[in-house]
Design goal:
Elements: H1 2-8, E1 10-15, E2 19-25, E3 35-40, E4 45-49, H2 78-90, E5 96-99, E6 102-105, H3 117-123, H4 135-149, H5 165-179, H6 188-194, H7 196-203, E7 204-205, E8 213-214, E9 218-224, E10 230-238, H8 249-262, E11 264-265
Antiparallel strand pairs: 1-2, 2-3, 3-4, 5-6, 7-8, 9-10, 10-11
């Protein structure tokens, strides 16, 4: 039907420069055909060799592009995900996108005005799907589940070097510190982050993607009392590559012991 032709006549094909590029199907494909006649976006026609068992991935209709949740796409595959993230980032200046309960974050490599107290209060008490995707929405969901069900919650922050894991964890801690309205004047975020220079002094290294890359994992445990206010924090485990501590023998062990002692802190 015309409806099908309008929406589903475009595919993604691999490209050495752009990774994936879009193409329009110029001639009806019949099952078993080894060649797909394509019209590229620059107007050139291409006879594209295909394996009937593994045809090129279909492109989503334009009406779905820019969706804030990847699971809303008709076709969910690598080119669809990358295209949607690129459109949101490049055209709408949005760094956050959901994929179900997972938050995908693009590092803009600059400060954005989306982490102030007003934004924190806007997300406080809201359901995850009711607001634009944000690290604060994930933090709020964890905080709410902990308070409602009286059960421990975990937020896993993963990504490649320079993706923004350390900063994302910092924003989540800022959220907890603000919404839990701790009676103490000392900020848990500041105290937990105060250990960062120590860990980073011996645990960071320059990589091809990040001048100050954390070469260790952190498990930061934040403790709340029965009123859901922060009462302490503890950096429980980490994966420091101890070979990076350059001093030898006794001095090296002393530094590691002292460092491990500093990481256990109370607000």
């Amino acid at each position: 039907s015309n409806h099908a032709e309008i929406y589903y006549n475009r595919v993604w094909i691999p490209d050495p420069e752009e990774i994936w590029k879009s193409a329009e199907i110029a001639k009806d494909y019949r099952v078993g055909d080894k060649i797909l006649r394509l019209l590229l976006e620059d107007g050139t026609e291409l006879d594209y060799s295909v394996d009937p068992e593994s045809l090129p991935p279909l492109r989503n209709p334009d009406i779905l592009v820019g969706e804030n949740d990847l699971t809303a796409l008709s076709y969910l595959h690598e080119p669809a995900v990358l295209h949607n993230l690129r459109i949101r980032f490049a055209e709408s200046k949005l760094i956050y996108t959901y994929s179900g309960i997972i938050l995908v974050a693009m590092n803009p490599y600059k400060q954005l005005p989306i982490y102030g107290d007003a934004i924190i209060h806007a997300y406080s008490g809201q359901n995850m799907g009711d607001m634009d995707p944000h690290i604060f929405a994930v933090a709020e969901e964890a905080y709410k589940q902990m308070a409602r069900n009286n059960r421990n919650q975990s937020i896993i922050v993963s990504g490649e070097s320079g993706a923004g894991k350390t900063v994302s964890a910092r924003y989540a801690m800022r959220y907890f510190a603000t919404v839990s309205k701790s009676g103490s004047n000392t900020h848990v975020e500041d105290k937990v982050l105060a250990s960062n220079p120590i860990t980073e002094a011996v645990g960071n290294a320059k990589t091809t993607r990040n001048d100050n890359s954390s070469r260790f994992g952190k498990y930061t445990e934040i403790s709340f009392d029965e009123r859901n206010q922060i009462i302490g924090a503890n950096m429980r485990t980490y994966l420091l590559e101890k070979s990076r501590v350059v001093f030898q023998g006794v001095l090296k062990n002393l530094i590691i012991q002292e460092w491990e002692a500093i990481l256990s802190l109370k607000v």
